[in-house]
Structure formats: C-alpha cells, structure tokens
TrEMBL record:
Keywords: FAD, Flavoprotein, Oxidoreductase. This is Choline dehydrogenase. Belongs to the GMC oxidoreductase family. It comes from Paracoccus liaowanqingii. Its EC number is 1.1.99.1. PANTHER family: CHOLINE DEHYDROGENASE, MITOCHONDRIAL (PTHR11552:SF147), GLUCOSE-METHANOL-CHOLINE GMC OXIDOREDUCTASE (PTHR11552). It comes from the Bacteria.
C-alpha cells in the first residue's frame, strides 16, 4: 500500500511508531513475511525535498521546523546553565534524513561491554553479521564487510589540500592511518565512509522503505502523531493518534513497537503512564506501569570545536558563498556530482586521550571551513576546524515531562561534564589536538587558532572555555535501556519489562553510547531485533578478520 496521510484504518499485527533509522528497517524486515500486517506511523512528512537528498544541503533540514523537532536541552548545569539545540529528524527516514551521513560501527569493546554486563547475544561477534547484512560497501563483500545489503556505503574523496593537511599532521603527531576503520581497529586517522551513493543521501527511508512501500501488507501513514500507547491491564493493544482535529485509534494484534527515537520514545512512554510512578503522577498522567528507568541514563557525545582562520590556502568557504550555491545546486541536479554530493565531513580520527586509556575515547571530525551549527542558522566562514568529541562519557542525564500535553516538549538535560573524569578526558584530548595542529604539514596552510585562542593556556582556562562553548554531537541514546537490573526498561530483545505487547527498538535501548556516530549502531539493533520478532535464530557469530 503506498504512503498515505488519510484516516487510519485496518487491522495490523504490528503498529510501529516512528519511520526513522530503526522504524524503516523494522517495516521492511517484518513485511518480508506476506502474512504479517504492519502499519508504520510517522508524524513528519514524506522525504520529497531535494534538500533531504542532496548531501551538501544537510544544514537546510536541520534549520527547518518541518524536518527537525528542534528540541532544546538544559539549562545544562555544568555548561554555565546554557540551553542547547538538539536536532532530531522528523519525517520519513527520521534522523537518517538530516544527519551528517558519517558511517561508523564503533569498536569491539563497545558491544563486548554490553554482553559483559548481562546482555547475552550483544557482543561484537554477535553484532558483526548484522552490520554486514545491512550494508553494501563500495569495495565489495569481504570477510568483514557486506556487499549486497540495503544501505550503500561509499568512501569520501578527501581531495582538498586541507583534508590532506589534516591527515599528514596526524601522521606527523604519531597516529596511524587506518585504511578501513569499519574493518579493523578504529584507532587512527581515516578517510570517512558515508551513507552517500550516486551523490545522494542513503537514509533508511531510501534504502529500506521506498523499495518495499507497495507491499500489500504494509501501510505507511504520515502526518499522524502518536499521543499515547493504549493499554488493557498490563498489555499494550494499540496507539491513540492525532492529526489536527482528527483523532483515531489503531490496534495491534501482536505488538506496538516504539521507534520514535531516544527523545521521542522516552517522551511517549511517560505520556502513556509508563515510567517513574511519582514523576508520572506529579505530571498529571494516569500511572499505568511503574518503571523507574524510563527517561534516565541519557547519554550523548560532548563536543568542543577548535577553529582556525586560514591564511595560506583557499578555504572551501569560498566555493560555498551565496553566489556560488546556485551553481553547486545545478551541477548536483544535472550530474549528482560536485560539492553538492558531499557532507564535507571527509576525514577524521579516533584516538586515546592518554597512553593509559584502555580504549579509544576521543574522535576528531574535520571541516575545511568554519561553521557554527549550533546558533539557529548555520554560518560559514574561511578557515578549518576540528570537532573534538568524547566517545565514552561517564556523565548521565535525564528526560522528564514538563506537561501532560503531548505537544509540549519534554525537559531534557544531558548533564555534560557532570563527572569530573569527563572534563579531564576532554582537556587531555584538547591538549593532544593542539599538538596535532602545530605539526609541520599545517604550516603551509598558515592557520591561526581563534578558538580556544592563544589566551587560553592553562587547563583551568581551557575548562572555562569548554563550559562556555561545549555542545552536542546530536547522538542521544539510552533513555529506555536494555538490561536486567531494576533501572532497565527493556530486556535484550527490546521488550518492555513487566508488560506484554510493547517493544522498543531505537537508540533509546542502547545501554552505553558506542564509539560511533550512532546511526549505524541503531540500524544494526533494528536488524538484529527484527530477526527476534520474526522468531528467527540469530545470525552466526563472526569475528573481524585481518586483511592480507
């Protein structure tokens, strides 16, 4: 059945809330069984806009209320009580339709930690076959990579002199160059892999949903908002929907599956009366099930941006001037090439904040121009910048109701730098980054540090700077985490503890944030749990193999 926006009707086995990174995967996989009826519900619009599909235009959907929920977090108590914008996708493809398209699986220890803490079947060896299943890597199938999955993954060209300077400066500092960071130890410098193919964004809507949207057992509804999960005793039986003045109820014969994202799913759970009893009652919502972990365990990658004014080389900012943008757009429309076909995040690095660290805990993402992505509209200027991000933070935040009104955004506090160890790691990472930017390959570029700037010398001064400018990498996870302890919300298959007929499959179930831009891990989780929903045996465990 094609995508529709009319009044919901019909009988379904599964009702999925949210057509994002996980929801599109579930809809495609569950309807492979022609006897399984699925309804996929998305509050946002269809992904028809060229700005969604053109990689270089990624700032436009981020700036749009149509495509972005535009949540605001904070005040953040350890960042000078600042509020911070949190971009989450709204529309087919969800955040995979507005993200930076960087493709990273993470490191082995990320997932081995999940299993070590009781989540059997979630070690990296259990996850690797699903990472392979979902991808079609441009270099083809090999023992570590998938060659015929729905998502097409390509390597960036990284042809600009500033990209080359980044790589050579990192080498001069002592970091290795990793040829395929998704096929080996991720530590070191790399050319970025991306969900871009033929010059177009590969969202989960493009890769998973559109090829199957005409299946007769699949209904896709856009423009409808889920206000709450319908319960009969301890069983979820459906969802209450709203579109303008119209309301409807859809019933699920087997399961309601929440895939509305770390913020959206946590919010919907609380609105449905499922969560911490005292908080739900105080918010004016009828308590359905006391589950204290809902909304807790919120995590994100904290980021600080080091900026350099370029004086010796022509910045890409020159090519992105207002008068050049029509030419870039026309070239992309005609050829799917040129600057329109890149997200500009074409090189990066993973490294340790110090020699005593047991695992990689820092990331560099690099841009060959200056850009402020955090202040509403994106501003571009001459220069280059390192985004320094912390991969495995110890600090935890929360999500809570402000109101029983579904249209009121929840309170979101990430609590960045709450744990003193996080601040120490960031300061160590900053010191190393500054050392990298002083290496000889950068001398030819003539860059001058403008942030933090030459006046910031001591660790105390650097921490003050971080608290004043630190921000989100837009990678929230964890508000409905998997586990077996009292604060776990779901089990290892996404089933909500203490209830039947209700499952969660999205970034909210991740117990710990991985060393990765989280789109790839979330899609992997959806692929893996979809097999469990269908009663299939998990794919056989695999280990990464060394390439000869």
């Amino acid at each position: 059945m094609p995508i529709q926006g009319g009044l919901p009707k019909g009988e379904y086995d599964y009702v999925i809330i949210g057509a994002g990174s996980a929801g599109c995967v579930l809809a495609a996989r569950l309807t492979e069984d022609p006897l399984t009826r699925v309804c996929l519900i998305e509050v946002g619009p269809r992904d028809r806009s060229l700005f969604i599909h053109m990689p270089a235009a990624l700032t436009m959907p981020i700036e749009s209320k149509v495509w972005n929920w535009q949540y605001v977090t904070g005040p953040e108590p350890h960042l000078n009580n600042r509020t911070i914008g949190q971009a989450r996708g709204r529309g087919l493809g969800g955040s995979s339709s507005i993200n930076g398209m960087v493709w990273v699986r993470g490191q082995k220890s990320d997932y081995d930690q999940w299993e070590a803490e009781g989540l059997k079947g979630w070690s990296f060896a259990d996850c690797l076959p699903y990472f392979k299943k979902m991808e079609s890597f441009e270099c083809g199938r090999d023992p570590n990579r998938g060659g015929d999955g729905p998502l097409k993954i390509t390597s960036s060209r990284a042809a600009h002199p500033l990209y080359e300077a980044f790589l050579r400066a990192g080498e001069a500092y002592g970091l290795p160059v990793t040829q395929d960071y998704n096929s080996a130890d991720i530590e070191g410098l790399h050319v970025t892999q991306a969900t871009i193919s033929g010059g177009r964004r590969q969202s989960t809507a493009v890769a998973y949903l559109h090829p199957v949207v005409h299946r007769p057992n699949l209904t896709v509804l856009t423009g409808w908002r889920a206000d709450r999960v319908l319960m009969e005793g301890d069983r979820a039986i459906g969802v209450a929907l709203r579109r303008g003045r119209n309301t409807a109820e859809l019933h699920a014969g087997r399961e309601v599956i929440l895939s509305a994202g770390t913020i959206g799913t946590g919010h919907l759970m609380l609105l449905s009366g499922i969560g911490p009893a005292d908080h739900i009652r105080a918010s004016g919502v009828t308590l359905r099930h006391d589950l204290p972990g809902v909304g807790e365990n919120l995590q994100d990658h904290f980021v600080a941006s080091l900026m350099f004014r370029a004086s010796g080389a022509r910045s890409i900012a020159s090519d992105l001037s207002l008068w050049n943008r029509p030419r870039i757009g026309l070239e992309w429309l005609l050829t799917r090439g040129g600057l329109g076909a890149t997200s500009f995040f074409e090189v990066g690095a993973f490294f340790r904040s110090g020699p005593g660290e047991a695992y990689v805990n820092m990331q560099h993402e690099f841009l060959p121009f200056l850009a402020d992505f955090q202040a509403g509209r994106v501003r571009i200027d001459h220069g280059y910048q390192y985004f320094l991000s912390q991969m495995r933070p110890k600090s935890r935040g929360w999500l809570r109701l402000r109101s029983a009104d579904p249209d009121t955004h929840p309170e979101i506090v990430f609590n960045y730098l709450d744990d003193p160890a996080d601040a120490e790691e960031m300061l160590d990472g900053l010191a190393q980054t500054r050392d990298m930017t002083r290496q000889a390959p950068w001398a030819a570029m003539g860059g001058t540090e403008i942030a933090p700037g030459p006046d910031v010398r001591s660790r105390a001064e650097a921490l003050t700077w971080m608290r004043s400018i630190g921000n989100t990498e837009h990678h929230p996870v964890g508000t409905c985490r998997m586990g077996h302890d009292a604060m776990a919300v779901t089990d290892g298959e996404g089933l909500v503890r203490g209830l039947t007929g209700l499952r969660i499959v999205d970034g909210s179930v991740l117990p710990y944030i991985p060393t990765a831009n989280v789109n790839a891990p979330i899609i992997m989780v959806a692929e893996k749990i979809s097999d469990r929903i269908r009663g299939r045996q998990p794919l056989a465990r695999e280990n990464l193999r060394s390439k000869i």
